[in-house]
Amino acid sequence: MRLYQKLLAISALVAPMVNAFEVKTRLWSESEDLAKAFVEEMTLDEKINMVTGSQNSFGPCVGYLEPIERLGFKGLCLQDGPAGVRSAKHSTTFPSGLNIASTFDPELMKSLGVALGEEVRAKGVNAILGPAMNMYRSPVGGRNWEGYGEDTYLASVAAKNVVAGITSQGVIATIKHFVGNEQETKRESSNSIIDERVLQEVYFPPFKAAIVSGAGGAMAAYNDLNGIPCANNTWLLNKVLKKQMLFHGFVTSDWWGVKDKYGIMNGLDLNMPGGKEWGPTVKDSYWGEELKEAVESGEIDEMYLDEACIRVMTMLYKYRQFDDYPEINLDADATEGHAEIVRKAAANSVVILKNDDDVLPISPKKYKKIAIIGDGALPMKLCEDNGCKDKISGVVALGWGSGTTNMENISDPLSAITERAEKDGITITSFTEDDDDTDKAAEVAADADLAIVVVVADSGEGYLTVEGNSGDRKDLDLWHNGNELVAAVAAANKNTVVVIYSPGVVNLPFVDDVKTILYAGMPGQEAGHGLADILFNDVAPTGKLPFTWGKKREDYCCDVVKGKGNSITQVEYSEGYYIGYKWFDKQNIKPLFPFGHGLTYAKFKINENAQSYWNVQTQRLVNLINGISTVVTIENTSDIDGYATLQAYLTMPSAEDDPRIGEYPEYMLKAFEKVFLKAHEKKQVNLLVPYAETKYFNTTTNTWQETIDGKYKVSIGLSHDDIYIRNEIENRNKSPKPAPRYCFALSDGYECCFDNEVVYEDETGKWGINDKGEWCGVEQPRWTPPPEETTTTKIPEPTIFGNPYNAFAEADDFYVFPDYQKQVKSSYDQLIAEGQNDVAEIVAKVARYPTPTWLANTQASKLVPKVLAQVTEQMKATGKKILTAFIIYNLPNRDCSAVASRGELGIEHLGVYKEWIDEIAGYFKAHEGPIVAIIEPDALGNMVSNSNSELCAEAFDTQMEAIVYAINKLSLPNVSVYQDVAQVGWLGWTGNMNILVPILEQILNKVGTGKLRGFSSNISNNQPLVKPDPPEATLSGNKSQSEYEYSLNVREALRKVGIADMGWVVDTSRNGRTNIKTRGENWCNIKGAGIGRRPEANPADLPELDAVYWFKPPGESDGSDRKGQWGYDPSCASEDSLTDSPMAGQWFHKQFVELAVNAVPSFEDEPPFEFPNFGDDTPTNTTTVIPEPSETIVTPTNSTTTIVPEPTETIEPVECWAEALGYKCCSDDGFHPVIYQDESGDWSADNGEWCGVIKSTDECWSKAQGYDCCAEGTSVFLEDESGKWGVTPNGLWCGIKN
Fold first, then answer.
1. pLDDT score of 703
2. How far apart are CA 149 and CA 102, in angstroms?
3. CB 834: neighbour CB atoms within 10 A?
4. In angstroms, what CA-CA distances link 174 with 48, 128, 131, 203, 950?
5. Is the pLDDT of residue 1073 over 90?
């Protein structure tokens, strides 16, 4: 990637889909709207049933919600688990999480998630209870095998990709156990004490990564966190999970983890499985009837119940589980093709710990007879939840507990190796009957060329005790006499291979006595086949340790805390960041095998001369930082093809350099890449540490921040301890060294001595004497930079061309919103009533120019078919091709640019944005008339200039991808797509080419030729349309440059890099004359309060433009006019507010009039505009002469000089109160804003005459401003001086009743 790479704080790129099927999810906004509408129809009993599990885990699923037949809700099925569907026939047994992490392969991780999702969906399970992503903290932790190891970055990559695969099938992934559940001992009565910053930097990121990939459920852990139960912890569930991580889904308890009814107020949404304790006959629940009584009594607000139900329903709508989702059938079979994926993962996760003398791989040239020894090589013994309480037997494909399956079709090592050996004519003997009979094992081993001894250990969930191990392991020894068995075999055969199936590290007292050790972990269904593939090199070994293999239990930072009696066990995470290899580094403990270790049959060499550098897009674009790149050259020096897994470890600046960050681990994994090289092949790899990974979490500001001084170190190798490259790189935020000063004396053959005393001066400069007694230059007062080097390089032939389709040239006429023309007319009416006829005539002419539809959020897409239908009707009525325009504003970047942004989407919603674009493209495609579509990035330039912000850097990258997608999708035969560059212009109009052009170049190279029509840019308070004479400085202090010149300059710059024939549209929406002051000496930042002109193609006075056009609806304000908004200025406050085209915001009459009068070019020479008939009693024509109002009606009054006397008590009341004062009331079918108030009432103007505004009888305050009131429950869209405003389903403003 030449310009940018992904900067997600906790990610590697999600790998491509492995199958053709992928659910097209709904937009979040649409899903939530549907969910809210559904919940509004529910009774209290139905809501209670939706949050309280049914049948206490003894129903059709381990977790179950009852159907609501009258509303079409089929119920909800939640089922274990992370390694396959539990308690179901025809379920593939997938590899453990630890094995998935061992692959170091994001694409394979995604494939496993897809396959699991396919089976879950086929069985009608709505939510799979997984994956688990607790950390490998203590080596004896019972469920270590379910998680992704000891490193946060690796765990985040695995979580992100597995969840992305699951959700692609329309299945809800339920991430667990949130958070601090790293041991089974006393898990329901322990308190995990963890520093907030450690939580943010070590334990939260894998969960956040999964949420980014669409996880729809989260399971609260059993344990307390810092003294509060996780399932009742509002800081954890509401503030962190739902707000900080932007989690839209539901939170469920772990099973029987609810202890009171108040969790629903603190972020818990589901009580699973419903009862107070385990048991098929248990009916009592802490929720259920108890929760209902609390709601009915007012003790608990029903809004908490509604919120929980909405979150459940949102996920069902999001993943379209109301659309033909299969019925519950846990025995359905959808396993086709999955054994192959699992086998690949099993092989790729085998870690070769040592392989002295190249004992492996097996070949018939080396070995004729192989002995296989150990009970672990046999088919596994089947027990409930894989927990054989007396004694396990056979291969350990998974641990025990809820995260297992029925363990069908498990491949065992003995059968798999025998099957494979027969193909090479190798004889297999075995002894698997009794691991305690070491003499017999040695006898069989001695009679073979190679001995393979298979040994095991096991662990699992705490509700089962297996061979004395209650979840957590008692110790790190091999089970079933494993150490003695290996020792006996190794003594009998020098070529002994030890294969270990276990949930992690085991003691290896024999490590120096055997030549080869393989760690196979818990690889799932294909345990035997995966091993055989590696032994015979049918699959090149790639597995890497996702944990550190210490020499003994005491080497690790942490152990399981047993606790005493029935008191809460305090589990102090006092090690902070230092788990796994970070602890070993801190304590200077040498492990047996380091994190990331895993040998291959091929041999690799890394060039140690690699250089690390700050990756900042291109040399021309200096502000967007990708991270720290290191270009590594790696070579396969062997005769065998193979994979090398490059790993990058980052060292943060020291606490002495930046005291804010404190002490960090010396090395932290921050990037990895698996590279395939053929024998003797050499490759260059650019390994990027994302910029986000160079930051620390500031708990004071609750944000990720950059360091400010010191140096970073990047170490690159093939494991944590096998490092080839150690580079230092200066902190980007460190104060730069002064730039080298130009030495004028060099041209005369002398050096410079800038700080020396001046002893001589002539026309060339000031001179001194250096230490050698020679002349040296001190200063050149009138120095100017040397001329730029000339070049004879020709401008390259264009390779990218703009789309020749010009919708402006195609159109016969232009669509103008009737509502907008009504608003212009209202302003016209007010001016006539005030006697300003000349001004009114100018304002009227503005109504002939079109405004676009502004699509600022996902709901606004509903306006597209509405507008296009109106245009179609006009085309049918006139026989003309009528152009309409849309601004596509809702790019996903909300969290970066909160002030500038009006879009609803955040950077995590790229998929939502793409769905939104797909919907809009569908409407465009079905329309017959010409369309202009403007893709407007929200403060793109602002994000570039603030790229030292993690969110801004991430948002820029996300927007680039979104822009390219939108251009490609909307480039249709009837659509001219323009990319707006106005926001980029904020970087500085006269000097931004070095920043702007690389961005546009990258966009166009990704989009390709003939797609984008061109660009649009807007005049602002910074620049005029045409160059002023005399020149003047802009508001920002920049030298004035006209918008027209700017368009030509950009296109010329693009031509020089091979991009030609790009159209351009100038948007004059902000103001026509530079530096217009709207109120006294103050600047009021009113966006869009300006005048758009000439939408015709190729304006004669401004050639090479497609159009000069009003490309923003008038008025949406940056806040200077609104109290409480950022940038508010009291002198800019406006009482006269109107609303223009649907969803477009507000514009302000006085500013609008001033800008209309001062527009450049002027409106004065244009013909009058005739307003259409809006249904008023008397048609309006701007050429009608309206007499100046007499003294008696200039201002409505009830004085005694009026023609009509004041009403007396005997006068019957009339409907129109103004008639008693000699005026009529305003007509019902027009828009009549209140423009004057006195003691009589509110006044407006109708056809140039005062009219009284009829007072509403239904207390709908917004009717006085021309709008109905909203339906009950409508959300507040904005708030101004008049009140709170919402939006109707038709996209029209409505007032929310007080």
1. 84
2. 9
3. 17
4. 21, 6, 7, 17, 27
5. no
**Amino acid found at 468:** G
Q: What is the pLDDT of residues 831-872, one digit of tens each?
A: 888 888 888 888 888 777 777 777 877 777 878 888 888 888
Using only the alpha carbons of the chain, give its radius of gyration. 36
In this prediction, residue 1226 carries a pLDDT of 79
- DSSP state, residue 661: G
Q: Can you read off the two tokens belonging to residue 674?
A: 């698996």
**In the predicted model, what is the mean pLDDT of residues 528-555?**
98
Inter-axis angle of helices 44-51 and 288-297, nearest 10: 140
Phi, psi of 647 (to 5 degrees): -130, 135
3-state DSSP percent of the chain in helix, strand and coil, to 5:
30, 20, 55
Question: pLDDT class for 288, splitting at 50, 70, 90?
Answer: very high
Task: State the DSSP string of 401-433.
Answer: STT----TTPPPHHHHHHHHHHHTT-EEEEE-S
Give one DSSP letter per residue of 726-753, joined into a string.
EEEEE-TTSPPPPPPPP-GGGGGT-EE-
Q: Per the structure block, which two tokens stand in for 1282?
A: 């008049």
What is the three-class DSSP state of 883? Answer: strand
Could you tell me the sign of the dihedral formed by the alpha carbons of 1085, 1090, 1095, 1099, in that order? negative
Please answer whether residues 672 and 694 qualify as being in contact, where contact means their C-beta atoms are separated by less than 8 angstroms: no
Pairing of strands 76-79, 127-128: parallel
pLDDT band at 6 (very low <50, low <70, confident <90, very high): very low
Contact 342, 94 (CB under 8 A): yes
Reported pTM:
0.63
Q: In Å, how far are 19, 36, 244, 267, 1133 from 248, measured between CA atoms?
A: 27, 13, 11, 12, 37
What are the catalytic residues? 938
How is residue 946 annotated by DSSP?
T
Strand arrangement of the beta sheet that strand 224-225 belongs to? 228-229, 224-225, 190-193, 569-572
Give the separation between CA 813 and CA 808, rounded to whole angstroms. 9
The residue among 1022, 943, 955, 948 whose CA lies nearest residue 984 is: 943
Mean pLDDT of all residues belonging to the chain: 81
- Region of residue 579 (phi > 0: left; psi between -120 and 50: alpha; otherwise: beta): beta
- Residue 692's contacts (CB-CB under 8 Å, 6 or more residues apart) are 7, 8, 9, 10, 627, 704, 950, 953, 954
Give the number of other Cβ atoms within 10 Å of residue 1182's Cβ.
20
Q: What is the mean pLDDT of residues 808-826?
A: 80
Assigned token pair, 88:
């179901």
What residue type is 1276 in one-letter code?
V
- Determine the Cα–Cα distance for residues 442 and 131; give it in Å rounded to an integer: 42
Which helix or strand (DSSP H or E) is residue 376 part of? none
The answer to whether 805 touches 832, Cβ cutoff 8 Å, is no
Q: Is the four-CA dihedral 404, 408, 412, 417 of positive or negative sign?
A: negative
The answer to whether the beta carbons of residues 967 and 934 sit under 8 Å apart is no
| Alpha-helix runs per DSSP H in 1110-1222 | 1149-1157
Contacts of 292 (CB under 8 A, 6+ apart): 44, 45, 48
b vs e for 519-548, b when ≥16 Cβ sit within 10 Å of the residue's Cβ?
Answer: bbbbbbbbbbbbbbbbbbbebbbbbbbbbb
Q: What are phi and psi of 33, to 5 degrees?
A: -60, -45
DSSP 8-state secondary structure symbol assigned to residue 1132: G
Per DSSP, 71 falls in state G
911 sits in the region (left: phi over 0; alpha: psi -120 to 50; else beta) called alpha
Cis amide bond preceding 865, omega within 30: no
Q: Which residues contact 364 (CB under 8 A, 6 or more apart)?
A: 424, 425, 426
